[in-house]
Amino acid sequence: REEYCSKIQEAIEAIGFRGEYLDHCRYGSGHINDTFLIRFKEPEGNVERYILQRMNHEIFKNPDELMENIYNVTSFLRDKISKMHGDTKRETMNVIYTKDGRPYFKDSIGACWRAYLFVGDTMSFDKVENTKDFYESGVSFGHFQNLLADFDAASLHETIPDFHNTPVRYEAFLKAVKEDICGRAKEAEAEIRFLMQREKDMGICMELQRAGELPLRVTHNDTKLNNILIDTKTGKGICVIDLDTVMPGLSIFDYGDSIRFGANRAAEDERDLTKVSLDLKLFEAYTKGFLEGCGGSLTEKEIELLPMGAKLMTMECGMRFLTDYLVGDTYFRIHREGHNLDRCRTQLKLVEDMEQKWDSMKDITGKYR
Ligand code: ADP
Ligand code: MG
Ligand code: MG
């Protein structure tokens, strides 16, 4: 990784920063890209900060399409926020162009770099510690959905094809069970059965989208808490960041993935399954925030299907862990024997708990509609 970042000075030269370069350091706790904070002294004497990132080329194979998505979405957001008299430098990311007018720079060893204005006086959290922060992230992701409600989602590139195409993921799972190349299927009989019993759920949302009953939306696809910058003064979510996976998709999947990771009382790989459950207080906090942020831009059908979005994202995630376990742990990095099976079990336990709390989930999503 360090080697990939060796050409950082080349990148600093190529990108159209103003003023005189001062210094840079690693920044933040993101796991995907290499992120740096970089400082420039402007001609007026003040110091300006930027975020400089080396994009992860293993995950993102097509930087042109990816940056086009980010550029188009952030330009749209900037126009919208400007019309609403908001602060366009803090409420959306701003891409800094290269000196020759491109949204990113490819250095002499092929690593790709891009820069954004630094949004200062903010904090971000890796884990959900309290309902307030989770609520704020719901407001921010809902607001993001609201601002982009009239953006033509179909014009975005699908940078990771079939990312939340659950039926396609289900087919891959069936294939892994059938081939059972590691002889592990017998270890996971109960989990395999659990998923097969829910086969008819897998395609529900995609079919509704195809039938025109659920709209295609701009989705973020990485709606973790730490992808929201929270204003240190007001404590409010101010900017949605990390737009690498912005794609056309379903609003209920963005919502559902937030619930999956944030409203679970246990860690993603907890072995003691009695600790795994859906925390209805956290569920309510996020739902309230999300629907407030959406400000009426969701359809009745989308609101009705929010619980389904949460269940489906959890089931899909559990199914991906199980598939990876069956094919020999080739995608998710493991730190112990059976790690992916453990991860699968927490997700499926969470699905089961959601099914038991279904009426409450319905009541809560209905309450804030
Ligand atoms: P990753 O995909 O690796 O998570 P992110 O784009 O989320 O990368 O960036 C990593 C971290 O850098 C973020 O969690 C945040 O703390 C910080 N960061 C990213 N962009 C900005 C920005 N425009 N202003 C301030 N901080 C930022
Ligand atoms: Mg991030
Ligand atoms: Mg990311």
The CATH topology name of the largest domain reads Aminoglycoside 3'-phosphotransferase, Chain: A, domain 2
Named at the architecture level, the CATH assignment of the largest domain is Alpha-Beta Complex
Average pLDDT, all residues: 96
The CATH superfamily label of the largest domain reads Aminoglycoside phosphotransferase (APH), C-terminal lobe
Question: How many structural domains in the coordinates?
Answer: 2
One letter per element, helices H and strands E, the order comes to HEEEHEEEEHHHHHEEEEHHHHHH
Q: How many DSSP helices? A: 13
Structural class: alpha+beta
Q: What is the helix content? A: 40-55%
The shape, in one word, is globular
The beta-strand count equals 11
Broad CATH class of the largest domain? Alpha Beta
Q: What would you report as the Rg, rounded to the nearest angstrom? A: 21 Å
Strand content: 5-15%
- Compute the separation of the termini in Å: 46 Å
Which sheet architecture does the biggest sheet show? 6 strands, antiparallel
Description of the structure:
The chain has 13 helices and eleven strands. With 369 residues, it is α+β, with helices and mostly antiparallel strands. It has two domains: 118 residues, Phosphorylase Kinase, domain 1; 237 residues, Aminoglycoside 3'-phosphotransferase, Chain: A, domain 2, CATH 3.90.1200.10. The strands form three sheets. Strands 1, 2, 3, 4, 5 and 6 form a six-stranded antiparallel sheet that branches. Strands 7-9-10 form a three-stranded antiparallel sheet. A two-stranded antiparallel sheet has the order 8-11. It is globular and about 65 Å long. The termini are far apart. Bound molecules: adenosine-5'-diphosphate and magnesium ion (2 copies). One magnesium ion binds next to loops. Adenosine-5'-diphosphate binds next to loops.
